[in-house]
């Protein structure tokens, strides 16, 4: 890249895997070190409208991915993003593979669309992060009518819809399948 | 109205998901094609980070985990600019870094490599780009390390970088390598990128003239994030 006259587009810097030690730089508390000041963590929102999501990222052999770092970004309960957007980060438990985060149940971004939380997955073996979305089971009608989801099969839509949790501390369960029969839908945003 | 504020990611500039010589990818690569939605507000916005969130030593890995001394190793600064595909500087980009110590060992509970830990080094730092997109951090050059893949493979010296631009669509995690490292072309993770010319964009260049005399060598590494379509950008500015 030169500092001279520019006559075309630059190419994006290529991605490389986050590797197994992503925690050091992005979630030090997960390896027993203090979080850095203002570092995003697994709780992005508390109070009225907050929901807790938990799940497991599974590989193609059905084994939990225990080294994943997951980011979530969503609107607030009124559907506002901008500076009101809610961002956070969580990691899979090294032993169980369970990840957990807490944020707002988002409002829809615009009329006629189903509200969702944008999710990115980083891990060893993932060369370029995977983007998916978490939709809510209460919004079945909006999901079925959502223009983005029209090009997704019914089973694909099911893979993007969290399940109401029946026990434990979480409100929703959202498992992610990287590969195979139940593969989650991933997006090229 | 269909708006795609950001250029589509050029997937051929990135490693594909399935790269069998890097064995961890085999069970973690999706098989189905990606779905391309319309870009929405969650894509062209993103979490905002300010310089006031950083501690004074966040960008100095030589001293930010000191147990009384400084980190051991070749002292370097890494600097460059964060730009977008339109060659516009990206200000306030958060760059988080992590790396092994000079012996090739990570301060991470899951790293069992026999090289010793450095009590004065955690390998964790952060910096934020300025108004002109420039960034800088100081560290020690990490050591290469072996890892189980095809028997004992070796990683070239590298620093992991996590970058937030102004939009979630620009999110990127990558690795920086060092000019002249003979391990670069032998590395299965580097070679997940099939085109050596593209790999070159991950190689930091020795920047001898910007050394800190009698202290640190300098390496230069520019980062390019996705860019907004010009027409959209202009329209958006009118109405925003
Ligand atoms: Fe590494």
Automatic annotation (TrEMBL), chain A:
<dbReference type="Pfam" id="PF00775">
    <property type="entry name" value="Dioxygenase_C"/>
</dbReference>
<dbReference type="InterPro" id="IPR050770">
    <property type="entry name" value="Intradiol_RC_Dioxygenase"/>
</dbReference>
<comment type="similarity">
    <text>Belongs to the intradiol ring-cleavage dioxygenase family.</text>
</comment>
<dbReference type="InterPro" id="IPR012786">
    <property type="entry name" value="Protocat_dOase_a"/>
</dbReference>
<keyword id="KW-0223">Dioxygenase</keyword>
<dbReference type="GO" id="GO:0018578">
    <property type="term" value="F:protocatechuate 3,4-dioxygenase activity"/>
</dbReference>
<dbReference type="InterPro" id="IPR000627">
    <property type="entry name" value="Intradiol_dOase_C"/>
</dbReference>
<dbReference type="InterPro" id="IPR015889">
    <property type="entry name" value="Intradiol_dOase_core"/>
</dbReference>
<keyword id="KW-0560">Oxidoreductase</keyword>
<dbReference type="GO" id="GO:0005506">
    <property type="term" value="F:iron ion binding"/>
</dbReference>
<feature type="domain" description="Intradiol ring-cleavage dioxygenases">
    <location>
        <begin position="50"/>
        <end position="180"/>
    </location>
</feature>
<feature type="region of interest" description="Disordered">
    <location>
        <begin position="1"/>
        <end position="43"/>
    </location>
</feature>
<protein>
    <submittedName>
        <fullName>Protocatechuate 3,4-dioxygenase subunit alpha</fullName>
        <ecNumber>1.13.11.3</ecNumber>
    </submittedName>
</protein>
<feature type="compositionally biased region" description="Basic and acidic residues">
    <location>
        <begin position="1"/>
        <end position="12"/>
    </location>
</feature>
